[in-house]
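Exercise: predict the fold of this chain.
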Amino acid sequence: MKSDQQIRKEGFDILFKNMDNVEAERFIALINRERFDYTKWRQPLFEDMTPEEIIQKGQQYAKDLRKIKT
């Protein structure tokens, strides 16, 4: 089982890999500011997808964003 520190580091690595610094900071601020259960909020978004499909869609989304920015 991963420690909280490992999970936090991996989460930040993924976030900053796929967003620029300002967007990543805004995302963190939004999550911290909102009083909602992130786990409940995201469950219906991915309930019919395998972990591999989620990763693939996330990677494609990041790739598409990079195309838009250039």
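Check your answer against the key: The chain has four helices and no strands.
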